[in-house]
Amino acid sequence: xxxxxxxxxxxxxxxxxxxxxxxxxxxxxxxxxxxxxxxxxxxxxxxxxxxxxxxxxxxxxxxxxxxxxxxxxxxxxxxxxxxxxxxxxxxxxxxxxxxxxxxxxxxxxxxxxxxxxxxxxxxxxxxxxxxxxxxxxxxxxxxxxxxxxxxxxxxxxxxxxxxxxxxxxxxxxxxxxxxxxxxxxxxxxxxxxxxxxxxxxxxxxxxxxxxxxxxxxxxxxxxxxxxxxxxxxxxxxxxxxxxxxxxxxxxxxxxxxxxxxxxxxxxxxxxxxxxxxxxxxxxxxxxxxxxxxxxxxxxxxxxxxxxxxxxxxxxxxxxxxxxxxxxxxxxxxxxxxxxxxxxxxxxxxxxxxxxxxxxx
Length: 360
Hints:
- By secondary structure, this protein is α+β, with helices and mostly antiparallel strands.
- It has two domains: 16-37 and 44-204 and 354-359, 2-Layer Sandwich (Ribosomal Protein S5, domain 2); 209-349, GHMP kinase, C-terminal domain (Alpha-Beta Plaits), CATH 3.30.70.
- Helix content is 37%, strand content 18%.
- It contains ten helices and 13 strands.
C-alpha cells in the first residue's frame, strides 16, 4: 500500500480518507483438498503423507489498474452508505447492502480500542461483480482500510484487515494484492482461520498490458460464496503431480520470465498453468473454461500465435498478456471486428505494482 510502515495517523482519527484499489486476476490454486472429516487425527494426517501435505489452496495472481474501486469515508453523526457510481446504478442497492454489512463486521471484529466512529462511506467507482476480477475482496479491503485509518489504526496490515471483514477464506491473492500489487504467489494455508501466506512477489514489467475479454451476458458469471464452496466440495483432492507441475511453472518459469521481461516465456507458462487448473475444475465449471464462447476464443487466439492466455478465477473473463500497449490495442480491435466476439466487452489494463492508493 502507499502507506509508510510508520504513520502519523496511529493515534489520531482522520476526517476523511479515499481508497483507490485495482482489480485482481487469479489464475488458479496450487492445491485443493475437500474438508477432512472432523474426527481426523494427527496420526491419520501423518499416514496420509505428513504435515506438509496439509497446506491447501495457494496459487498465483496479478494486480491491474483497471477496473477499480474508489471508496471515500469520513466521520459523520451516524453511519451512512451511498453509491455515486453513475455507470452501474443498477448495482446501487446491492453495493450499499454489502458495505453496510462490512462496516458491521469490521466493528465486531476489530480491537475494541480501535473501533471506528460513526462514518459516511461513498462508493464512487466499482469493479463488476462475479467476473473473475476480485470485486468482493477489493471492496471489503478498501472499506476495512478506510475504517482502520479513520479510527487511528494505521498499523493494521492487509491480513489483519482481511480477517476483520471475513475475506481470504480460500485465496489470499486479492488480500496481498491490495497491500502490495504486482505478481503474487500465495503459499496456501493449513487452517481455515489463517490467511494464505505471501511467499513470493515480483513486479510485472510496466510496458506489458492485460487485455480482458468478457462475454456480453450474465449466463457465464463466475461462482462465488456458497456456490463456490459447494463446487469445491464436489471435487476430489488435486493430485500431487499437478500441484508440483503448477509450482514448477510458477517458480522456474513465470518468475524468471518476469525478471527478464520476457512476455513470450511468461505467456507460455501462464497458458500451461491455466490449462492444468482448467482440467482439474472441468467437472464443476463444464469445461477447461467456464464459458464455451471463451473456450472457442482461446483456441482461436492460440491459432494466431498468442501465447499468454488464461481465465481469471471462475471466469467468465479471459485475460491475455501482451508485451505492450500497441499489441494489446491491435489484438482488441481484431477480436471486436470478428462477428463471434463483437458483442464482448474488451478493455486494456496496465500492471499495478503498488498497493491500494490512500488519499488523505
